[in-house]
């Protein structure tokens, strides 16, 4: 049987465990406990960011789990105020100090920032990789046009674009762009921030498989070869969200879930967001 330890999304030499643990809004003991519990349950991919102010707690959870470092894929993100080249390298080093790691697995630009030339920022990302601060680099919240610009400007391969993706948001354009660049799509807010349970369709499909609406969302993403990083602070939900490798959604069910998607289903609202596809 497949598990999160055997199911990877591959892109430009990166092997990203398809199911990861998000940590946005988790901090302190709640965060380190969720990371530790998640790793013990079988999660092998942890998503954090400098702006979440929890890299220390994530690092503590990793150490407390006693899982070997080379078994865990750690992503962190550089905040937009650190996109000037020297700032970016400093920021990556600070993340390593807070995480108490010698290397990040995947370093992302958290959001696009039109105030700093993209080529300069991406040059610094490639430099961070050369310096051994991170094994892989990528972006987050990039549109189709920004992805094309980034791929053309970056001296090293970009392995992923992390974007909001769940059944209520149609992301086919940016997903097609990721595929055409050989990049993985990593889905954030994959259970629509807990809103999956409000859907009659997801509830009905889940009931047919003995699964919850959240599990149906995650399975639907994994079956598209998308990585998903649901967050939970509760042990039973951490366990539930990883228990998605023992059932299959039929093609009819997949299509029924695709039909829930709309371009207006986005939950992320921020004034600095790019013009979405
Ligand atoms: N790159 C970016 O700009 C960006 C933006 C947003 C998020 N992210 C990343 O993506 C991760 C996930 O996204 P997210 O945190 O926005 O949303 P999410 O994972 O879709 O949803 C998390 C919410 O759902 C609840 N939940 C978890 N499992 C559940 C289940 N099985 N049934 C019902 N409710 C459940 C959680 O509450 P409990 O804790 O009470 O279980 C929490 O309130 C983040 O944590 C972060 O790492 C990245």
From TrEMBL:
Q: Where does substrate bind?
A: 110
The reply to whether Disulfide bond figures as a keyword in the UniProt entry is no
GO BP, one annotated term: methylglyoxal catabolic process
Which residues bear the site annotation Lowers pKa of active site Tyr?
A: 77
User: Which terms does the record give in the GO molecular function aspect?
Assistant: methylglyoxal reductase (NADPH) (acetol producing) activity
Q: Which UniProt keywords apply?
A: NADP, Oxidoreductase
Residue ranges of domain NADP-dependent oxidoreductase in the record: 19-257
Describe the reaction catalysed, as an equation: hydroxyacetone + NADP(+) = methylglyoxal + NADPH + H(+)
Q: Where is the active site?
A: 52
List the Gene3D superfamilies hit by this protein, alphabetically.
Answer: NADP-dependent oxidoreductase domain
Q: Which residues cross the membrane?
A: none
Q: Does the keyword Oxidoreductase apply?
A: yes
What's the superkingdom here? Bacteria
Give the similarity note: Belongs to the aldo/keto reductase family.
| UniProt-recorded name of the protein | Aldo/keto reductase
Taxonomic source organism: Rhodopseudomonas palustris
């Amino acid at each position: 049987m497949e598990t999160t330890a055997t199911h990877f999304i591959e892109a430009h030499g990166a092997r990203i465990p398809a199911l990861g643990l998000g940590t946005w809004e988790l901090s302190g003991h709640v965060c380190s406990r969720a990371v530790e519990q998640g790793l013990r349950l079988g999660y092998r991919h942890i998503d954090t960011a400098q702006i979440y102010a929890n890299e220390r707690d994530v690092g503590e959870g990793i150490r407390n789990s006693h899982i070997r470092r080379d078994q865990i894929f750690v992503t962190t993100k550089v905040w937009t105020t650190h996109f000037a080249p020297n700032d970016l390298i400093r920021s990556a080093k600070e993340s390593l100090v807070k995480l108490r790691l010698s290397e990040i697995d995947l370093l992302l630009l958290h959001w696009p920032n039109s105030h700093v030339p993209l080529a300069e920022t991406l040059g610094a990302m490639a430099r961070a990789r050369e310096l051994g601060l991170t094994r892989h680099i990528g972006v987050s919240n990039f549109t189709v046009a920004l992805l094309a610009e980034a791929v053309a400007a970056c001296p090293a391969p970009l392995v992923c674009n992390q974007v909001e993706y769940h059944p209520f948001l149609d992301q086919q354009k940016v997903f097609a762009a990721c595929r055409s660049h050989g990049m993985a799509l990593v889905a954030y807010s994959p259970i629509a921030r807990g809103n999956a349970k409000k859907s009659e369709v997801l509830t009905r499909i889940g009931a047919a498989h003995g699964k919850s609406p959240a599990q149906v969302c995650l399975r639907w993403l994994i079956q598209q070869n998308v990585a998903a990083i649901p967050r939970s602070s509760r042990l039973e939900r951490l366990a539930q969200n990883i228990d998605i490798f023992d059932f299959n959604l039929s093609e009819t069910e997949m299509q029924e879930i695709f039909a829930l998607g709309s371009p207006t289903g986005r939950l992320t609202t921020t004034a600095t967001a790019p013009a979405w596809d």
